Amino acid sequence: MIISIVYTIIGLIFCFVLYLAFKAINTGMEAKKANKNLDTSDDTNLDDSNNINLDNQEDLVKKLTELKELHEKKILNDEEFAAAKKKILGE
């Protein structure tokens, strides 16, 4: 009699543990799906910002190249070159 009560209690505990496990797995799957949806929308925004950053970088490289050419041709002295470079780099 006592053995059957113990087995019943063990069975109930086992069922409760399974319930908690399935609930945790379901919550994890829902969170993963929500994160995937967020990542998809963030990727679109990142692509736009990456294109903007690339344009800014190309413009920055172009300005620095022109500045270097002016310095090499001795149109700008070292102090003027350093000041203009700081201004372009925003330092």
Description:
With 91 residues, the chain is mostly helical. The protein has one domain (2-89). It has helices spanning 2-72, 78-89. The longest helix has 71 residues, at 2-72.
Structure keywords:
91% helix, rod-shaped
Give the gist of this structure:
With 91 residues, the protein is mostly helical.
Architecture blueprint of SSEs:
Elements: H1 2-72, H2 78-89
Contiguous helical run count: 2
Secondary structure: helix percent: over 70%
Main β-sheet: number of strands, strand sense, barrel status? Answer: none
Structural class: mainly alpha
Would you tell me the overall average pLDDT?
Answer: 82
Poorly predicted regions are none
DSSP strand content: under 5%
Number of extended strands: 0
Radius of gyration, whole Å = 32 Å
Q: H/E order of the elements?
A: HH
Globally, the shape reads rod-shaped
Question: How many domains in all?
Answer: 1
How far is the first residue's CA from the last residue's CA?
84 Å
